[in-house]
Specification:
Elements: E1 11-14, H1 20-32, H2 41-51, E2 54-62, E3 65-77, E4 81-86, E5 96-97, H3 100-116, E6 121-124, E7 134-136, E8 140-146, H4 151-156, H5 160-170, E9 174-179, H6 182-199, H7 206-215, E10 220-227, E11 230-240, E12 243-251, H8 254-258, H9 260-274, E13 279-286, H10 290-297, E14 302-304, E15 307-311, H11 325-335, H12 339-350
Parallel strand pairs: 4-6, 12-13
Antiparallel strand pairs: 1-2, 2-3, 3-4, 3-5, 6-15, 7-15, 8-13, 8-14, 9-10, 10-11, 11-12
Length: about 350
């Protein structure tokens, strides 16, 4: 006869995110552990509803209480393969747990889940990974700083050279608007899609942005800069844990001469402080890249981010790195595509870039 299962043992299981009770338990756990916005079940829900990438996750519990949570998007792509990603379309996530031991237990269970779901790769964007996983600590950096007490101090907190660019933008005839209505959403997508096409990157489906704005209603908005009534720069931002996170933003070609991107981020700093935010999270950038240096020009100090991945034996790790040699020619070709065509086929491809 088998010995009885100890009541105090920690267990791990796949969560049913269609169960409101389970979702409520996870939301409470994330709040108690000061988890990121990417740990929230509604982030996964927005991804699934807009791109079809299945929302799932693992919970660890002991004596009926949650001790760990690993949010996962089950990503499938004809081009980029299949993977379990924590979390899809995010820059953070990873296991959120009471201990490193629980984090590692979640990851080991994720290995089993990956095999069962034919996902040869697991990607963690943060958190603690077990031995044997590939750890990357220098590929990306995050940029976070405190917001100043008032508008003038905010301007003075920015290094002189970058401050001069902002002062030039303040003298130009640029209009600033903030909102979440259809006009705001359409303006943002028009600017963002052109911006990423110019960088050689397929644009995400507009449905992804709509889903995020709807799920995070009251905690997300769009700030747009217009010149002569035409949108030239726009950013979709999230507000979480007293921090503003400009997440999907960009500008058209005209934005450079107008210093519209500089104006956009400066105005977002002012707007965020009025909303009660205390920090500005400029997001992640690849180490040494143009965006990485741009953020340093604003006076932000880069903080290395730790990512981890696991690849099933006999398989290759999926490659979605735009700096990879495999994609260099494709990126140059994409930059030359007509915008209408890029916006037609880009979302189909970009669904797999979660």
């Amino acid at each position: 006869m088998n010995a009885p299962f100890p009541l105090s043992a920690e267990t791990v299981s796949v969560v049913d995110l269609r169960d409101p009770g389970e979702v409520a338990r996870i939301e409470a756990f994330v709040a108690e552990r000061s988890g990121s916005i990417f740990h929230q079940p509604k982030w996964l829900r927005a991804v699934e509803n807009s791109t079809g990438q299945k929302a799932t996750g693992l919970v660890a519990e002991k004596c009926g209480n949650l001790t760990g949570w690993l949010p996962l998007s089950e990503v499938h792509s004809a081009i980029f393969g299949r993977a379990l990603v924590s979390s899809g379309f995010a820059v953070g996530g990873g296991p959120l747990a009471d201990s490193d031991k629980t984090s590692q237990r979640l990851c080991r269970f994720a290995e089993e889940l990956a095999v069962r779901t034919s996902c040869p790769t697991i990607e963690l964007r943060g958190g603690t990974a077990p031995a044997g996983w590939q750890i990357c600590e220098h590929s990306h950096a995050g940029f976070v700083t405190e917001l100043a007490e008032d508008d003038e101090q905010q301007l003075l907190a920015i290094p002189r050279k970058q401050r001069a660019e902002i002062r030039k933008s303040l003298k130009l005839d640029l209009h600033v608007s903030v909102g979440c209505n259809e006009e705001d959403r359409a303006a943002h997508y028009a600017v963002y899609s052109e911006s990423v096409r110019n960088l050689g990157t397929p644009v995400f489906p507009r449905a992804l942005f709509d889903a995020m704005l709807d799920e995070f209603a009251g905690a997300a908005d769009i700030l747009t800069i217009r010149h002569n009534g035409v949108p030239v720069a726009s950013v979709l931002s999230f507000y979480h844990d007293d921090t503003v996170m400009p997440f999907w933003g960009g500008g058209v070609f005209a934005a450079r001469n107008l210093r519209a991107n500089e104006r956009m981020y400066f105005e977002l700093m002012l707007h965020a402080r009025k909303r009660g935010m205390e920090r500005f999270d400029f997001g992640r950038s690849k180490t040494g890249s143009g965006p990485y240096n741009y953020k340093k020009n604003w006076g932000f100090e880069p903080q290395p981010l730790s990512y981890a991945s696991w690849t099933a034996p006999g398989h290759r790790k999926r490659d979605i790195n735009p700096n990879s040699e495999a994609y260099s020619a494709k990126i140059e070709l994409w930059k030359r595509l007509p915008l209408k065509l890029a916006n037609m086929i880009g979302p189909v491809i970009a669904k797999g870039l979660a």
